[in-house]
Amino acid sequence: MRGPSVFDRNAEEYDNWYREAPGVLVLESEVKAIQALTLEGVGIEVGVGTGVFSSRLGVPFGIDPALKMLQKAKTRGVSVVRAVGEFTPLKDGCMDYVLFAFTLCFLTDLQASLQEAWRVIKPRGNIVLGFISKDSQWGSRYFRKKAEGHRFYKHATFYGVDEIEEALERGGFKITHRVATLLQGPDDVITAEEPSTQLDRGGFICIKAMKQAVTSTPCL
Fold first, then answer.
1. DSSP line for 148-169
2. pLDDT in tens, 34-48
3. Is 115 exposed, middle or buried (0-12, 13-18, 19+ CB in 10 A)?
4. Residue 3 pLDDT > 90, yes or no?
5. Strands, DSSP E only, in 7-162?
6. Residue 6 binned pLDDT confidence (cut-offs 50, 70, 90)
7. CB atoms < 10 A from the CB of 16, how many?
8. Domains annotated on the chain, with CATH
């Protein structure tokens, strides 16, 4: 995962954004979208940050490379470990689900992180991904931040829905549900939104996919 030091230096600023408008409305919209996909059993959030998502969604565990972020997540009741999505300190098949909420753009290796998630998820368990679509108004806003050298986003990589779905399928997952939110533009957020099926208009896309069993190819 990229840039843990910048998140350590700016943990308070990052956290405060979700406490004031429009951040508090954006968070509410994103939480509702993830809740619509239903997180069942025991799970972990990869890139837990300050715990703003996990604490709202009831996710008991989290990992992140940024120590100060983890300290804040711990105060919100999340059990945390310092680690990255590409190398998780978990046993095989120990989690009912793995959540990535606004983390994909900061991963060093998306496919390796999805493979790690597959490893730690129980058979027929789920992965849930929440991400900013690069093809949305929100994606355009973050691309500008990246181009301007924004401290959080200058090394970020943004994805389209098709790219994420292809990566999930390569990683051994079957997509089961999709929802979107943030149909309001970045400058037009006046209320929290209910989840929508309009993926082509949504700024924040949530995808749920089930872990598929490995099938071996006969040698003869």
1. TT-TTTTT---B-HHHHHHHHH
2. 999 999 999 999 999
3. middle
4. no
5. 43-46, 61-64, 79-82, 95-101, 121-132
6. confident
7. 12
8. 4-211 (3.40.50.150)
Give 170's pLDDT tier (boundaries 50, 70, 90).
Answer: very high
Q: 175: part of which helix (H) or strand (E)?
A: strand 173-181
pLDDT in tens, 181-215: 999 999 999 999 999 999 999 999 999 999 997 64
- pTM to 2 decimals? 0.94
Residues 172/118, Cβ–Cβ less than 8 Å: yes
Tokens standing for 27?
């968070």
Asked if 182 and 30 count as a contact pair (C-beta separation under 8 A), the reply is yes
Cross-strand partners of 81: 63
Phi-psi region at 58: left, alpha or beta (left = phi > 0; alpha = psi -120 to 50):
left
